[in-house]
Specification:
It contains 3 helices and 7 strands. The protein has one domain: Leucine-rich repeat, LRR (right-handed beta-alpha superhelix) (Alpha-Beta Horseshoe). Strand 3, helix 1 and strand 4 form a beta-alpha-beta unit. It is about 15% helix and about 10% strand. It has a 7-stranded parallel beta sheet with strand order 1-2-3-4-5-6-7, with no helix packed on it. By secondary structure, it is mostly loops. It comes from Tricholaema leucomelas. Pfam families: LRR_1 (PF00560), LRR_8 (PF13855). One of its GO terms (cellular component) is cytoplasm.
Length: about 190
């Protein structure tokens, strides 16, 4: 058994402690779910051989860094690393060039690398409940970003969104979303300018 035809491997909620390198033999794998195992802290580098892998769920484990294997997966589009112990993102995060959804909520991330702005396909970025003190100005150029969440971070600047004209507009406004991000960056640039 090499399981070369296996497309989905769903192993969430199993108390798995480590991921065997043999998973890299599953060359047709497109979806890997290892959420809520609580003890996984790394992935074997051989996983970068999984060129078809597009969806990876690693939330609620013990990762302190984004595994290097993920940075070399050309088709990775969706990644959830929420509820881990990440303190930073690697500068090489931009290498995940096809990533459109990145969940990083409930970590310990203190700052974002400037290279995050090179993630041209990123449309959803969730950073709530981290330790971010600032939003990098370069993020204003991330034109594909459609949803972002900075809620519950100790951001240094206080930014208040302008009042909405009607209730419909108010319902659509996200307090720590795209509009907030752009206003924050604008205020930040005024202070440093």
């Amino acid at each position: 058994g090499q399981l070369t035809s296996l497309q989905e491997l769903l192993l969430s909620y199993n108390r798995i402690k480590s991921v065997p390198k043999e998973i890299s033999n599953c060359i047709s794998l497109e979806r890997l779910e290892l959420a809520v195992n609580r003890n996984i802290c790394d992935l074997p580098p051989q996983l970068s051989d999984l060129k078809k892998l597009s969806h990876v769920d690693l939330c609620m484990n013990q990762f302190t860094a984004v595994p290097s294997a993920l940075l070399d997966m050309p088709n990775l589009e969706w990644l959830d690393m929420g509820g881990n112990k990440l303190q930073e993102l690697p500068d090489a995060i931009y290498r995940m060039e096809n990533l459109h959804t990145l969940w990083l909520q409930r970590n310990e991330i203190k700052s974002l690398p400037e290279t995050i702005s090179n993630m041209k396909n990123l449309s959803t970025l969730v950073l709530s409940n981290n330790k971010l003190k600032d939003i990098p100005a370069c993020m204003k150029d991330m034109t594909n970003l459609r949803f972002v969440n900075f809620r519950d971070n100790p951001l240094e600047l206080e930014v208040t969104l302008p009042p909405c004209e009607n209730t419909e507009e108010e319902e659509q406004q996200e307090m720590f979303g795209i509009e907030f991000m752009h206003m924050y960056i604008q205020e930040s640039l005024k202070k440093t300018g």
